[in-house]
Amino acid sequence: MNFFAQIGILLRKELVLELRMGYAISGILLYVLSTVFIVYAAFFQGVNSPMLWVTLFWIIMLFASVNAIVKSFVQENGARQLYYYGLLDPLAVIVSKMIYNISLLFFLSLLTWAAMAFIVGNKVEEFSAFLLALFLGSAGFSILFTFVAAISSKADNNSTLLAILSFPLVIPILMTLIKLSVVATGMLEDTGIGKDIGILVAIDLVLAGLTLVLYPFLWRD
Amino acid sequence: MIRQSWWKILAVVILVYTILAGMLIPLKPGIAEVTPRALQAGTEVELTVTGYNSYYSKAKNELRAWLKLKGDVVLKAARIEVLNDRTMKLHFILPQYLPSDSKDDACSLILDSPIDGAIVLPDGIALTQDSVNLLEGKKLWSVDKMDQLNAGPKLTFPYRSVLYESIRNQYFHVPLWFAMIFLFMFSVNFSVRYLRTYDPDADQRTLALNRAGFVFGLLGTVTGAIWAKYTWGAFWSWDVKQNMTAVALLIYSAYFILRGAFQDEEKKARLSAVYNIFAFAALIPLLFVIPRMTDSLHPGNGGNPAFGGEDLDNTMRMVFYPAGIGWTLLGFWVASVAYRVEKLQQRLLDA
Amino acid sequence: MIWNRLSLVCILTLLFQQMAFAQQASGDFLRSIGHIYVVVAVILIIFFGIVLFLIYLDRKLTKLENQIKENE
Questions:
Q1: Minimal-distance CA residue of chain B relative to C46
Q2: Position C23 pLDDT exceeds 60
Q3: Are B112 and B150 in contact (CB under 8 A)?
Q4: Which of A48-62, A82-96, B81-95 is the least confident region?
Q5: Any idea what the Cα angle at residue B272 is, between residues B267 and B278, rounded to 5°?
Q6: How many angstroms separate the CA atoms of B3 and B9, rounded?
């Protein structure tokens, strides 16, 4: 079985599992909705500044992503890991997980955006720039969290460990994302937008490359 | 013994040199204060100049002073009255018109003495005139010439009005970062070696280097905060480099916590090596890319080239570069002690 | 052991109190003589920081030495 066929099968498996265990995905959706509602309720004077809107959006996204991804390795128990180990290429496992998580987070970010727009109000004016930010952001988040979840799944109390290990690493991505999104709300006229996109793409590529190089070392147990 | 630890001796020698040269070489003479700061054209004014590290009374009769406007037009002081080494009074007879097409202008004050050399207070004094007459002003201001400025003392550090003596922190605060980055770089090197060979020794070296690097980073942050308090006004100014180093320290704290999360030695070593490599790669944009693209209070950021220009002259380079080497060697020395402790602990566990 | 640790804490507390007091007494001590005491403070912090780390390693070594002695 070649590499791409393995990835295809693993992706289908992820999707089937996700749909079969409907509570996981619906739990995340509910999480997003209730957080957005809390934001709406907490800022009873309304979220007026685009800066605040963008910051809240990405913080909600950050926690939703952690919750969505932490299970991607937790649900794989030891026996199933062993089964993969004998059958598959480790790179196919991690690549399929990354692709799946990127699409999941992108979907989740669109949903968060819709929820924010519906409940709090939409502040985004340049849709293409914001969509690009959403894609680069969900790519960065999912690569980073997938890899760190792979590390922390080897330890016992892994959800705490995931937060401790990944939050410092996510800060540069988050800062660049917020800057990019603020530009997309039309509040700032930033001519250096290309530079920010460049930084994000570079960080994403470096993290993805490292994940591919390092994952085989995490794999064996 | 000597052959093995030559680099430790080198570290001590360089650090002694750094501290002696860094603390003993005086600052270049400068102008600490001038009053009044606003002058009116067509009047006779008396400026009181307070010097820093200056020796006015030694060069009493050879002192000269000018007010300098844009376009290299100058006005020489009519009379100079030296009170003591640190204070003097300059008398200027300002012409009726300024060589300027607006009512307000700013001028620099230039002092020259054979002992202290030429000292400039750039654009520190405001000038006003009641009516504008460009031609007449140019004529009135082109009488005096500024020539034959003295070079002043050679072996000095630059005088900066916000930094004063704390410019010397360049040899103590900044090299801590060099040491930290080198230590982290070597620790990544050993992490890679561990993943290649699964030799526990490489893991112990990684841990020791990270410990030492973390200590140096912490000291760099604390010393930076103190320096910032007295130059920028607050311990923490939300400057991009301060934030990024705080994040770097968080990342390496997470490394130590990760190590504590495993009981099995082999698993601990393998996973922490993987995280170490990953964290260092994430650190590179943090420390080298983002600070250069964002506005910062630090020199060398926000599009500026790092160091250089007037902030780092040749005398400073003579101390700063050895200081970087010296502190880095000290970092490796500390790391080697930590490594030997780690090694001993391992041997005890194995026995 | 515990007394060592306690005495260290006491000394550090006293030192910090002293420093706080000195600051209250003359608010601009660190700004005097062209901010030279900022440099002094920085050097002292680096010195004590490294010394504290060495003390930490030293205690660890003492513990290990004792264990080795016991093993023999």
A1: B219
A2: no
A3: yes
A4: A82-96
A5: 135
A6: 10
**Which DSSP helix (H) or strand (E) runs through A95?**
helix A90-119
Cα–Cα distance, B8 to B2 (Å, whole number): 9
Residue B41: partners with Cβ closer than 8 Å, 6 or more residues away:
B94, B95, B96, B97, B98, B127, B128, B129, B130
This prediction has a pTM of 0.85
C-alpha dihedral over B282, B287, B290, B292, to 10 degrees? Answer: -150
Look at B226 and C41 and tell me if their CB atoms are within 8 Å: yes
Residues in chain B with CB shorter than 8 Å from the CB of A192 are 293
CB contact under 8 Å between C64 and B341, yes or no, is: yes
Q: CA A217, CA A196: separation in Å to the nearest integer?
A: 32
Q: Are C45 and B176 within 8 A, CB to CB?
A: no
| Total domains in the fold of chain A | 1
Residue B40 dihedral angles phi and psi, to the nearest 5°:
-115, 130
Q: Show Cβ contacts of residue B68 under 8 Å, excluding neighbours closer than 6 positions.
A: B74, B107, B108, B109, B110, B146
Q: Report the C-alpha gap between B17 and B35 in whole angstroms.
A: 40
Domains in chain B, ordered, with CATH?
30-141 (2.60.40.10), 164-350 (no CATH)
pLDDT tens digits, residue range B199-255? 999 999 999 999 999 999 999 999 999 998 888 888 988 888 888 888 889 999 999
Helices A3-20 + A90-119 axis angle, to 10: 40
B303 part of contact set with chain A, CB < 8 Å: no
Chain C touches chain A, with at least 3 Cβ pairs below 8 Å, answer no
Q: Which chains touch C (3 or more CB pairs under 8 A)?
A: B
**What stretches of B117-167 adopt beta strand conformation (E)?**
117-128
First CA to last CA across chain B, in angstroms? 28
Strand order in the sheet with B104-113: B38-40, B117-128, B104-113, B64-69, B73-76
* Residues C39, B165: C-beta atoms closer than 8 Å: yes
Domain that holds residue A87: 3-219
- Tens digits of residue pLDDT in B18-67: 999 999 988 888 888 888 888 888 888 899 998 888 888 888 888 889 88
